[in-house]
């Protein structure tokens, strides 16, 4: 069981307030992702939950019990670090067994659990190697193995994939999601990559400067971002923001429209502009349109087969039902 | 672009390195050579380098006159004991300074080092009086404690430097894995710092072995180590050069041999962090 509740939790380093008091609940079995630009306090928040940093104020509850003053070793949480943080002087077997050894489990039980974890993570052939002899992906698996053998109340991941190359990252993303489906244990995952957040999370917590900007499911955040920051942060490529008369026509200070909700054609549509850079991904093409009179650049997503050349004049049609409206404070107008 | 190393340049630098090495080693070599001379040849002018009557007589005399083994044993106990005790005190101290530094950590380190700037003789009188009061004069335990305290700043500094090289995340991982502070230091930090700890032990052992000021001033007949053994052969009167050299050779031989076998470790330890 691993329900984690933060009540008015705050953190300051000296005079600098990194996290103003915030409340947050992560339900048992939930996959929660903390996402935000670097320096938004997401890692600090995770370390507060882990107990690696002391809170300045507030209460952290794990399964309803006050864990604020409990040392990390006693919180029953497992953590996977960005650098993997494997013990370089121990074999893979000993690395995975370490938390069990610390828990003083009988040797037979340790062996059984290590073998189980190794099998799940395809590490059986590497048990007698040292971390230095493993590839990045394998090291990552050992770090995960070390976390799962303990059967913790919750897993904490601190940007675990950012040291892996792109192909491996996609693979590990799936593996971690798979693991969550099978174990049904609470997971808190910190990343700056909104694609990871969107694909893995049950619940995304968007942070900026220590503040929670919005909490919701990936589709909630995509469909109804609460403010301009979330609207701009979630979704790739970024949402187009338009101010001025066009926004006023919608009764808003700013309107936002995602690239995938604008149709592009040679001669039809209310907006017009000139094609700048085109990015061809094969399946999709992103056109960056200039001289629209709406914003500096409007990004449009079209099918892979659509082809316009640099300098072509095109016309754009936004889907009216997908226009997001924001007031002068940047908040969503319902 | 890599600098071209011509065979000529290589031969030149090699010769230079040997020359400097020889220069540094010369006093020790001369001591060893002198120990095989007769007293008359030891002070011969011009000095005789290799062509003299080699004799083992001095070693015999030295062994007859004083009990070398007892001094050697005292040296081993005092150098070993103070090193061991120092490591036990310094590992937790360096751990806390390296991994949970406070705003004053740098100052504390500097303050510890500053005690090494004080001339030892400045505190001889108070320490002597304390030793008399505690009955520690001429005891091995007394010397172990004093040498430990004297070398402690160096041990702490060295360990601190090594520990700083260990990524903090690994220790945090240990904490998350349920390790107590003791487990963390014992099973994770210490094994990872073994090369650093080993060279610290080695250097400290050598320093304690060679320490002469306190060992000479605080010992008499019972606890005197090899430094006292050598000193007993220096005398303002009489011809004692060859015997003094024999005594010196016997005193430095163990540490020289130890240093020879552990030089790789020692060099690695002393340059750790600087060239990584």
What does this structure look like?
The complex is a heterodimer of chains A (334) and B (276). Chain A is of the alpha+beta class and 334 residues long. Chain A folds into 2 domains: 4-231, P-loop containing nucleotide triphosphate hydrolases (Rossmann fold); 243-326, OB fold (Dihydrolipoamide Acetyltransferase, E2P) (Beta Barrel), CATH 2.40.50.140. In chain A, 27% of the residues lie in helices and 31% in strands. Chain A is built from 9 helices and 18 strands. Chain A has helices at 42-50, 92-102, 107-120, 136-148, 166-183, 194-200, 218-223, 228-233, 245-249, and strands at 4-13, 16-26, 31-35, 57-62, 65-66, 77-80, 154-158, 186-191, 203-208, 211-216, 240-243, 254-257, 262-265, 271-280, 284-290, 298-303, 313-318, 324-326. In chain A, the strands form 4 sheets. In chain A, strands 6-7-8-3-9-10 form a 6-stranded mixed beta sheet, sandwiched between helices. A 5-stranded antiparallel beta sheet of chain A has the order 13-17-14-15-16, with no helix packed on it. Chain A is globular, with a radius of gyration of 23 Å. The model of chain A has no long low-confidence stretch (mean pLDDT 91). Chain B is mainly alpha-helical. Helix content of chain B is 72%, strand content 0%. Chain B has 14 helices and no strands. Chain B has helices spanning 7-34, 39-42, 57-65, 68-99, 105-114, 124-134, 140-164, 168-176, 181-192, 194-210, 213-217, 226-231, 241-261, 263-271. In chain B, helix 7 packs antiparallel against helix 10 (194-210) and helix 8 (168-176) runs antiparallel to helix 9 (181-192). The two termini of chain B are 21 Å apart. The mean pLDDT of chain B is 85. The interface between A and B is medium-sized, with 25 and 18 residues.
């Amino acid at each position: 069981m691993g329900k984690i509740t933060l009540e008015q939790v705050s953190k300051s380093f000296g005079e600098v307030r990194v996290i103003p008091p915030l409340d947050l609940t992560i339900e048992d079995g939930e996959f929660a992702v903390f996402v935000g630009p670097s320096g938004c306090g997401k890692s600090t928040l995770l370390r507060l939950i882990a107990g690696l940093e002391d809170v300045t104020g507030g209460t952290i509850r794990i399964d309803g019990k006050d864990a604020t003053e409990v040392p990390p070793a006693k919180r029953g949480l497992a953590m996977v670090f960005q650098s993997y943080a494997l013990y370089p002087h121990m074999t893979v077997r000993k690395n995975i067994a370490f938390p069990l050894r610390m828990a003083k489990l009988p040797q037979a039980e340790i062996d059984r659990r290590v073998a189980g974890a190794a099998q799940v993570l395809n590490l059986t052939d590497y048990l007698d190697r040292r971390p230095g002899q493993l590839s990045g992906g394998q090291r990552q698996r050992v770090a995960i193995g070390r976390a799962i053998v303990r059967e913790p109340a919750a897993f904490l991941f601190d940007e675990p994939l950012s040291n892996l190359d792109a192909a491996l990252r996609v693979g590990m993303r799936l593996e971690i999601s798979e693991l969550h489906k099978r174990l049904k244990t609470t997971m808190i995952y910190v990343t700056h990559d909104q694609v990871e957040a969107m694909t893995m999370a049950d619940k995304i917590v968007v942070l900026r400067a220590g503040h929670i900007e919005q909490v919701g499911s990936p589709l909630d955040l995509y469909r109804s971002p609460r403010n301009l920051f979330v609207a701009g942060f979630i979704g790739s490529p970024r949402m187009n923001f338009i101010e001025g008369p066009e926004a006023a026509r919608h009764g808003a200070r700013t309107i936002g429209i995602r690239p995938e909700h604008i149709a592009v054609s040679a001669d039809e549509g209310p907006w017009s502009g000139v094609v700048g850079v085109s990015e061809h991904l094969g399946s999709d093409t992103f056109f960056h349109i200039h001289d629209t009179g709406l914003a500096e650049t409007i990004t449009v997503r079209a099918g892979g087969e659509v082809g316009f050349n640099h300098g072509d004049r095109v016309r754009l049609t936004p889907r009216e039902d997908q226009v997001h409206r924001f007031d002068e404070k940047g908040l969503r107008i319902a | 672009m890599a600098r071209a190393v011509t065979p000529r340049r290589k031969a030149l630098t090699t010769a230079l390195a040997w020359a400097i090495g020889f220069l540094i080693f010369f006093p020790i070599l001369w001591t060893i050579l002198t120990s095989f001379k007769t007293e008359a040849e030891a002070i011969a002018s011009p000095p005789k380098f290799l062509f003299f009557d080699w004799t083992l007589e001095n070693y015999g005399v030295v062994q007859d006159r004083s009990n070398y083994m007892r001094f050697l044993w005292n040296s081993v106990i005092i150098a070993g004991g103070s090193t061991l005790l120092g490591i036990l005190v310094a590992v937790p101290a360096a751990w806390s300074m390296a991994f949970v530094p406070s705003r004053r950590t740098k100052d504390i380190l500097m303050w510890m080092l500053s005690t090494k700037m004080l001339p030892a003789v400045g505190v001889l009188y108070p320490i002597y009086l304390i030793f008399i009061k505690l009955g520690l004069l001429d005891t091995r335990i007394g010397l172990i404690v004093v040498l430990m305290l004297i070398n402690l700043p160096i041990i702490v500094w060295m360990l601190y430097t090594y520990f700083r090289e260990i990524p903090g995340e690994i220790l945090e991982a240990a904490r998350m894995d349920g390790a107590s502070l003791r487990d963390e230091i014992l099973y994770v930090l210490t094994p990872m710092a073994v090369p650093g700890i080993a060279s610290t032990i080695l250097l400290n052992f050598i320093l304690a072995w060679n320490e002469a000021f306190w060992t000479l001033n605080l010992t008499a007949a019972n606890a005197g180590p090899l430094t006292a053994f050598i000193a007993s052969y220096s005398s303002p009167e009489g011809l004692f050069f060859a015997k003094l050299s024999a005594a010196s050779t016997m005193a430095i031989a163990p540490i020289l041999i130890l240093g020879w076998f552990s030089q790789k470790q020692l060099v690695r330890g002393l340059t750790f962090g600087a060239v990584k």
